[in-house]
Amino acid sequence: MSSLALADTNPASLSADAVVVGLYQSADGAPTLAPGAAELDAAFEHRLIDTLVLLGATGAVGEVTRLASLGTVPAPLVAAVGLGIREAADDESVRRAAGAAVRALAGSATVALALPALRPAAEGAALGGYRFTRYRAGAATDRAPVTKIQLVVPDAKDKAAKAELKRAAALADAATFTRDCVNTPGNDLRPPAFADAVSKAATKAGLAVEVLDEKALRKGGYGGILAVGLGSAQPPRLVRLAYSPRGKATAKIALVGKGITFDTGGLSIKPAKGMWEMKSDMAGAAAVAGAMLAIAALKPKVEVVAYLPMAENMPSGSAYRPGDVVTMYSGTKVEVLNTDAEGRMVLADAIARACEDGPDYLFETSTLTGGQVTSLGNRIGGVMGSESLHERVRAAGDRVGEPMWPMPLPEEIAKLMTSDVADLSQVASGMDRSGHMLQGGYFLSRFVADGVDWAHLDVAGPAYHESEEYGYLPKGATAVPLRTLVELVVDVADNG
């Protein structure tokens, strides 16, 4: 990941490979320079905007226009990045602009950003510079990612500025860990290896770690996790991570994330087209693990315990079958109709266990259903659960640029999920896919203890982008909703 640093040097005097300034879009005229560009403009004898317009700059969000300085300033390259219309520009506009600029300037060792809003600029720049090249022999011939990012501020010694940079760096480091896990192919990140990777990173961060192997899972009665893992040669795991603040905690939060390291659909096998993306079916667990790493670095005054159920859903002679009845950790007996609805099985066990810790809030996230993509697309996650948390989750997502949309859990969904042979059906009877995303949310609700405020974040679309990159989000793993989870934890710590 690119390193972050503060600089209070005049941007026109910085010895960087490139200096980036912001550009506002105008609805009825030429674009205008954003705050932070005045000194650079003066060095160009106030002709910077005219030159950028000649090069085609409009100020649209994420648009990057590059200009050779030809010795006018020490930096050989000046870049202007669009922030959109001034009145509509917000923190997310700055994040996307910074990410786009750093990605466009790959090959430059040091890039200085003179943009408004320090933390969004730092977050966007660090997140936007990410690349996953572990398996690419030719990666050395590509333009190298930016190694150092300088954020231009009035005073580099200012405590508030340092705190903003620290938080941005913690989130970017955590997102890098999450993205690396999700991007790693299924043959190299099966459940035991995933558990080991999380345990190593969490231990280094100072978190308490407990890993339940298949023997401990059997002894503990984790029927859902075990059932999903039956078809794989690599047994399942349940990882517990715990963070405790110094002094009195203001609240206790549980985080749960789905960790299916590869999902073939089991005996209800998926079509071949697109199945390669199922290495990302552990994105929820990876995001929760990353969130815990960031929490350990930021040290909020709240207790946080995370549960990461990990399994590989494979077809084999030992795999669980449609028609099986599984006794879950909670004692609930579930009739399985579709082995491809495995995520809710492992999550139900983890949620029930997490509730035993007595949390005030429980936030669970998963790439749970294709219904989320059908309903909300690839960039907006669905939120279900306690209505008291709907707006809190939505607002947290908006603040960090990870949009979420509240969805209902109507009574008719509950009626669909009755079983003639067990306490609960895993999916709707007859495989009725109406309200498919809501079915997953309702199923999980049956395993949440009374009195626990909870939210289920279905991020099947936003967590992994196969075909596009935009702003600070790369192709492949995005780390959504890591930053939303951290924002929620900090919000609870500060406001209860």
Describe this structure in words.
The protein is an alpha/beta fold. It is 35% helix and 21% strand. It is built from 15 helices and 21 strands. It has helices at 38-43, 48-54, 91-104, 118-128, 159-183, 191-205, 214-220, 223-229, 283-298, 343-355, 370-376, 387-400, 411-416, 436-445, 482-495, and strands at residues 3-7, 18-25, 32-33, 64-68, 77-85, 110-114, 148-152, 208-212, 237-243, 252-257, 259-263, 303-313, 325-327, 333-335, 361-366, 381-385, 404-406, 424-425, 453-458, 464-465, 476-477. The strands form 4 sheets. Strands 8, 9, 10, 11, 12, 15, 16, 17 and 19 form a 9-stranded mixed sheet that branches. Strands 1, 2, 3, 4, 5, 6 and 7 form a 7-stranded mixed sheet that branches. It is elongated. The relative contact order is 0.12.
**Poorly predicted residue ranges:** none
For the terminal residues, how far apart are their CA atoms? 33 Å
Q: Fraction of residues in helices? A: 25-40%
What's the Cα radius of gyration?
24 Å
Number of E-type strands: 21
Shape estimate:
elongated
Task: Figure out the total of helices.
Answer: 15
Largest sheet: 9 strands, mixed
Q: Pairing-aware structural class of the strands and helices? A: alpha/beta
Q: Which oligomeric form is depicted?
A: single chain
- Give the strand content: 15-25%
Tell me, rounded to a whole number, the average pLDDT: 96
Binding site for Mn(2+) 2: 258, 263, 281, 342
Protein name: Probable cytosol aminopeptidase
Domain Cytosol aminopeptidase: 338-345
Active site: 270, 344
Topology:
Layout: E1 3-7, E2 18-25, E3 32-33, H1 38-43, H2 48-54, E4 64-68, E5 77-85, H3 91-104, E6 110-114, H4 118-128, E7 148-152, H5 159-183, H6 191-205, E8 208-212, H7 214-220, H8 223-229, E9 237-243, E10 252-257, E11 259-263, H9 283-298, E12 303-313, E13 325-327, E14 333-335, H10 343-355, E15 361-366, H11 370-376, E16 381-385, H12 387-400, E17 404-406, H13 411-416, E18 424-425, H14 436-445, E19 453-458, E20 464-465, E21 476-477, H15 482-495
Parallel strand pairs: 1-7, 2-5, 2-6, 6-7, 10-12, 10-15, 11-12, 14-18, 15-19, 16-17
Antiparallel strand pairs: 2-3, 4-5, 8-9, 9-12, 13-14, 16-19, 20-21
Helix pairs in contact: 3-4, 4-5, 5-9, 6-9, 8-10, 9-15, 12-15
Pfam families: Peptidase_M17, Peptidase_M17_N
Binding site for Mn(2+) 1: 263, 340, 342
GO molecular function, one term: metalloaminopeptidase activity
